[in-house]
Design brief:
It contains 13 helices and 21 strands. The chain has helices at about 1-20, 40-45, 50-55, 65-85, 90-100, 100-105, 125-130, 175-180, 195-200, 205, 210-215, 245, 420-425, and strands spanning about 130-135, 145, 150-155, 165-170, 185, 190-195, 220, 230-235, 250-255, 260, 265-275, 290-300, 305-310, 325-330, 345, 355, 360, 375, 390-395, 405-415, 435-445. Helix 4 (about 65-85) packs antiparallel against helix 5 (about 90-100). The structure holds heme C (5 copies).
C-alpha cells in the first residue's frame, strides 16, 4: 500500500517534471505566446495598490524604457546584429529579460519606447507571477517557463481572490527564480552576468538567505486591499539605481602605520574595505558598465591638498585595477560603423586610484562594455560577499611639507556606467554621476 502511494507520488512528480521540461523556455520560447495572454500591470493596481506603486519605482518596470537600455539596445546591439548577423539572435534575446512579453510574442525588435507599445510594460506583474519553473540545470538567459492564465503563483498557500486563482509556489521563493534573468551567458560561452551564481557560491546561500530577503523584505501590512494583515513581501527591488541601497555597502577604516613621522619620512596608510551588505559580489550584474574606485587625499597643516596613488600589489592583470591614461571600448566602432574609432578613456576617474572591477575583453583583447561581444574575462578584483580587502598607500613626504597635522580622507565611489562611455553615447548624466559608498579619515603628526 505504502509502496503504491509512493510510486504514484514519484510518477506524479516525474510527469510534472517532464511536462514542464516540454514547455518552451529560453530561446525556443520566442514567439510562442501572444501579448493578449498577459494582463497589464494596471489590472492589478486596484487591489494591490502598494505593490503596484513600489513596482513602478523599481528598475524592473523600466527595463525596456529606461534611456540607457534604449541606447544600448537600439544603437549598439541591434546595429551590431545588422553588421554581423551572428549577433542578430543575441539582440532578440535582450528582450527575453528586458521585455519578456514582447519576446514571447515574437515582437522583436519591439517598437521604440516612445511608441508606447505593450513592450513598455518591461518585467511586469504578470510576467513574474505566471512563471511556473525553469528549463535546464542552471537558470540563465531567460530560461523561465511562462504559463500565463488565471492562475497567479505566489508565496502563500490557500489565498482567495475575486480576480484570479492563486497557488503557493516554492520556486518563486528561491534565488533560482531571479537567476533566470540575473545570470547571462553570451555567444562565446562566457558568463557575462552571474549575480545568482555569485550568490550561490557565497555565505548567504549556505545560510539560506535568498535574494528576496534583501530586495523584497517582508513587513506587516496588507498585500491586497481586502486582505487580512500578514507579513508582506515588499516589491522594492532596489539596487544600483538607489543611492541609499548602495551607500554603506562597503565599510571603510583607515590608519597610518606610525602616528608621528619625520618631515623627510614616508607615511604608510592602510585602508580596510569590508563588504557587509551585498549577497553577491560588489559590483554585480552589469559589471561591464560599473566602476567602483577608492580615492585618497592628504591635506597638510597649510591646507594644501595632495592626491595619493595606491601601492601596487603585483597580481596578474592589476593594470586594469589602477586608473590610468589608456583608451578602450574600440569595439563600439563596429555598430557605430566607424572603423577608425580610437576608443574613449578606459576609466574616467583620477589616475592612480584603485578600481574594484572585472574587465570584459572583446575577441581582439580590448576592454568592452558590449557584454554580448565578450570573448574573455580579466582579473576579478571585486568585493565578494563579506570579503575584506586591504589597500596600502605609501606617501614619500614632499620636501616642503610643513610641521603639524596632516589629515587623510579616503572615499569610495560607485558609478553605474564608465563616464567616458556614457558621454560618447549620449547617456543622461544621472547614469554617470558618482555615488559615495563610504568614507574614512585619519591623521598623522609631522615633526622636524
Ligand atoms: C479584484 C481584486 C484583485 C485584482 C484585480 C488582482 N488581485 Fe491578486 N489578490 C487579490 C486578493 C484578495 C488576494 C489574496 C490576498 C490575501 O488573502 O492575503 C490576491 C493575492 C495575490 C497573490 C498572492 C498569491 C499567493 O499565493 O501568495 C498574487 C501573486 C497576486 N494576487 C497577483 C496578482 C496579479 C499579478 C494581478 C494582476 C494581473 C492581480 N493579483 C490582480 C485580489 C486581486
Ligand atoms: C521580478 C518579479 C516580480 C514582479 C515584477 C512582481 N512580483 Fe509580486 N512577487 C514576486 C515574488 C518572487 C514574490 C514572493 C516573495 C517572497 O517569496 O518573499 C511575490 C509576491 C507577491 C504577492 C504576495 C505578497 C505577500 O507576501 O503576501 C503579491 C500580492 C504580488 N507579488 C503581486 C504583484 C503585483 C500586483 C505586481 C505588479 C505591480 C508584482 N507582484 C510584480 C515577484 C514579482
Ligand atoms: C524576467 C526577468 C527577470 C526576473 C525573473 C527578475 N529580474 Fe531583476 N531585473 C531584470 C532586468 C532586465 C533588470 C534591469 C533593469 C534595467 O534595465 O535597469 C533587473 C534589475 C533588477 C535590480 C536592479 C535595480 C537597480 O536599481 O539597478 C534588482 C535589485 C533586481 N532586478 C532584483 C531581482 C530579484 C530579487 C528577482 C527575483 C525575486 C528578480 N530581479 C527577478 C529582469 C528580471
Ligand atoms: C545580503 C543581502 C543581499 C542578498 C542576499 C542579495 N542582494 Fe542584491 N544587492 C544587495 C545590496 C546591498 C545591493 C546594492 C549594492 C550593489 O549595487 O551591489 C544589491 C544590488 C543588487 C543589484 C544591482 C547591482 C548593480 O550594480 O546594478 C542586483 C541586480 C541584485 N542585487 C540582484 C540580486 C539577486 C538576483 C540576488 C539573489 C541571487 C541578490 N541580489 C541577493 C544586497 C543583497
Ligand atoms: C539573461 C537576461 C538578460 C539578457 C539576455 C540581457 N540583459 Fe540587460 N540586464 C539584465 C539584468 C538582470 C540587468 C540588471 C543588472 C544590474 O542591475 O546590474 C541588466 C542591465 C542592463 C543594462 C544596464 C541598465 C542600467 O540602467 O544600468 C543595459 C543597458 C542592458 N542590460 C542592455 C541589454 C542589451 C542591449 C542586451 C542584449 C544584447 C541585454 N541587456 C541582454 C538582464 C539581461
Amino acid at each position: 500500500m505504502k509502496n503504491s502511494i509512493l510510486s504514484v507520488i514519484i510518477l506524479f512528480c516525474l510527469s510534472t517534471l517532464i511536462f514542464s521540461q516540454d514547455l518552451p523556455g529560453g530561446e525556443e520560447a520566442l514567439g510562442t505566446k501572444k501579448y493578449e495572454q498577459y494582463e497589464k500591470p494596471e489590472a492589478c493596481k486596484s487591489c494591490h495598490p502598494d505593490i503596484y506603486q513600489q513596482w513602478t519605482q523599481a528598475m524592473m518596470s523600466q527595463a525596456y524604457t529606461h534611456h540607457w537600455d534604449e541606447i544600448e539596445y537600439f544603437d549598439l546591439a541591434v546595429e551590431h546584429g545588422k553588421v554581423d548577423p551572428k549577433f542578430a539572435p543575441v539582440a532578440d534575446g535582450c528582450n527575453g529579460c528586458h521585455t519578456p512579453i514582447a519576446f514571447l510574442s515574437g515582437d522583436v525588435p519591439p517598437p521604440r519606447p516612445s511608441e508606447n507599445s505593450r513592450a513598455n510594460e518591461s518585467v511586469s506583474c504578470d510576467v513574474c507571477h505566471t512563471i511556473k519553473s525553469f528549463k535546464g540545470d542552471e537558470p540563465f538567459n531567460f530560461s523561465y517557463i511562462s504559463q500565463p492564465g488565471r492562475l497567479k503563483w505566489g508565496n502563500k498557500p490557500g489565498l482567495t481572490s475575486p480576480h484570479h486563482d492563486t497557488e503557493e509556489s516554492d520556486f518563486m521563493k528561491q534565488a533560482e527564480f531571479c537567476g533566470n534573468c540575473h545570470n547571462e551567458k553570451d555567444p562565446f560561452g562566457i558568463w557575462v552576468k552571474s549575480t545568482h551564481l555569485e550568490w550561490k557560491e557565497g555565505p548567504y546561500a549556505k545560510q539560506g538567505v535568498p535574494c528576496h530577503q534583501c530586495h523584497m523584505p517582508k513587513a506587516w501590512g496588507k498585500n491586497a486591499t481586502m486582505a487580512e494583515k500578514s507579513m508582506v513581501s515588499q516589491h522594492l527591488f532596489h539596487g544600483g539605481h538607489d543611492a541609499g541601497k548602495v551607500a554603506g555597502t562597503i565599510e571603510l577604516r583607515m590608519h597610518p602605520e606610525e602616528r608621528e613621522v619625520e618631515y623627510d619620512g614616508t607615511i604608510v596608510l592602510k585602508v580596510q574595505l569590508f563588504n557587509g551588505k551585498t549577497g553577491h559580489k560588489f559590483p554585480t550584474g552589469s559589471v561591464e558598465d560599473r566602476i567602483v574606485w577608492l580615492h585618497v587625499t592628504a591635506t597638510d597643516a597649510n591646507g594644501k591638498e595632495y592626491h595619493l596613488p595606491v601601492d601596487k600589489k603585483g597580481f596578474d592583470g592589476e593594470e586594469y585595477t589602477i586608473a590610468a591614461d589608456v583608451l578602450a571600448y574600440q569595439d563600439m566602432g563596429i555598430p557605430k560603423r566607424d572603423p577608425n574609432f580610437k576608443g574613449v578613456q578606459r576609466d574616467g576617474v583620477p589616475f592612480g586610484d584603485r578600481i574594484f572591477r572585472m574587465p570584459y575583453f572583446d575577441p581582439q583583447g580590448r576592454m568592452t562594455i558590449m557584454q554580448w561581444n565578450t570573448a574573455s574575462l580579466g582579473v576579478d578584483y571585486r568585493f565578494g560577499p563579506r570579503e575584506t580587502k586591504i589597500e596600502t598607500f605609501s606617501w614619500v613626504l614632499p620636501g616642503d611639507i610643513p610641521e603639524g597635522k596632516v589629515n587623510f580622507k579616503a572615499k569610495l565611489f560607485y558609478q553605474l556606467l564608465v563616464k567616458p562611455v556614457g558621454d560618447y553615447l549620449g547617456v543622461p548624466e544621472e547614469e554617470t554621476t558618482p555615488i559615495l559608498v563610504n568614507s574614512a579619515s585619519t591623521w598623522v603628526e609631522i615633526y622636524e
